[in-house]
Design brief:
The protein is α/β, with parallel strands linked by helices and 382 residues long. It has helices at 54-57, 61-68, 97-103, 127-137, 153-157, 159-163, 168-181, 197-210, 227-244, 255-261, 279-284, 289-295, 306-309, 330-340, 358-366; strands at 34-43, 71-81, 86-90, 112-117, 120-121, 138-142, 215-219, 247-252, 264-269, 272-277, 323-324, 344-348, 351-356.
């Protein structure tokens, strides 16, 4: 599934700030958490000439640098982040992913394009409104923990609330609640230097959660951690999202991390989007050879669901046999078919959508499935 432009989006010709004060607008409940259109970030001399010039827009990164002395870190990017989803931006070093996440709250000013949060124009925010967005609506977790070494765990977690002007007793009580939520109970009075890397990252995560942001932004937060600690932190993010349903934008260069965490993944290369879709869509239908190389070693059966593996059911098959939900992973379906000794039915809302058997499941594992020919069709249960 490749991305397409939203032609109805209104383009902002530059990242110009308002000079007058802006009052926060009421969130539009129908709007995405973030809506990004035609976004560019160009570094170099006279950067604002690049996005509007058809000749420059089509040049490769190397050609653009040679011709203009500019580097397009983000190139003509469109995407929405839906409320409550974990949206992963993935790419190799230099792909533009970290620059992109910083433009969402204007830690880096975009060169052109538009960014809306809850329907409100982020590029039109004045200094005070932007400060409120960063302090209350969003929070960022960086790879560098950024903890204050002279403060205790509890006071580090409470720091964002202190900046907001929350009273000491209230902010420490809130910090205590979050410390327990991220598994640091009993370490409240320790200093950062007395903690492991994983524990320090938990403090960073707790500090972000303490201000109760609408959106959590993660910029490769676990890349410096040991593999086992990294996995523990990934599990912590999954658990917190399951319990709270908070919107998250997660930046990573690690495909396995992206597949574990993401509801959707946006894969970037040279500042542009290569493919955007669910983990299953990207693994099952890579957009090009670049994506295909990325997913080559992914165990397909652990990502692809039976919805893509099933075949049509005949009348005799549609009424009996073990039932599987459409989102059942192929790895679990293999076990179900092996245990039952017969094909299994894919059933949703009492309707048989199709059948999975040894042949179809093995085709997925071998990478020759090509997608289900029954997707979107239903066979009425008898």
């Amino acid at each position: 599934m490749t991305t397409t432009k939203n032609t109805g989006a209104t383009k902002n010709t530059g990242a110009t700030k308002n000079t007058g004060a802006t009052e926060p607008t009421a969130a539009d409940p129908a709007a995405p958490a973030f809506a990004v259109r035609d976004l560019w970030k160009v570094f170099g001399p006279k950067a604002d000439r690049i996005p509007g010039n058809p000749e420059y827009r089509i040049l490769s990164t190397a050609e653009l640098r040679e011709k203009t002395g500019c580097t397009a870190a983000v190139r003509d990017v469109d995407f929405d982040v839906q409320r409550g989803e974990v949206f992963v931006v993935m790419g190799l070093s230099g792909s533009g992913k970290s620059t992109l996440v910083r433009t969402l709250t204007r830690l880096i000013e975009p060169t052109s394009g538009s960014i809306a949060m809850d329907g409100e124009d982020v590029l039109g925010m004045d200094k005070n409104r932007l400060r409120e967005l960063r302090r209350r609506q969003t929070a960022m977790v960086f790879q560098n923990f950024g903890l204050l070494p002279h403060r205790s765990v509890l006071d580090n977690v409470a720091y964002g609330l202190e900046i907001q002007g929350v009273g000491k007793a209230e902010r420490r009580a809130k910090a205590q609640e979050i410390v327990e939520k991220v598994g640091l109970a009993g370490m409240e009075e320790r200093r950062p230097g007395q903690l492991s890397g994983g524990q320090q990252q938990r403090v960073g995560l707790a500090r972000a959660l303490a201000v109760d942001p609408e959106v959590l932004l993660f910029d490769e937060p676990f890349s410096a951690l040991d593999p086992l600690i990294r996995r523990d932190m990934q599990e912590e993010v999954i658990r917190l999202h399951r319990e709270e349903g908070r919107t998250m934008v997660f930046i990573t260069h690690d495909l396995s991390e992206a597949l574990r965490l993401g509801d959707r993944i946006m894969l970037m290369r040279d500042g542009a989007i290569v493919q955007l879709g669910t983990p299953e869509e990207i693994v099952a239908n890579p957009a090009d050879d670049y994506v295909r190389d990325f997913v080559r070693d992914v165990p397909r059966e652990q990502v692809i669901s039976v919805r893509r593996a099933m075949r049509p059911a005949d009348a005799a098959e549609s009424a009996t046999g073990t039932e599987l939900a459409p989102d059942t992973l192929v790895v679990d379906a293999i076990e179900a078919v092996a245990n039952s000794g017969e094909p299994c039915r894919v059933v949703e809302d009492g309707r048989t959508l199709g059948i999975v058997d040894h042949e179809r499941l093995l085709a997925v594992v071998a990478g020759i499935d090509g997608g289900s020919d029954t997707e979107g069709k239903e066979v009425a249960a008898i």
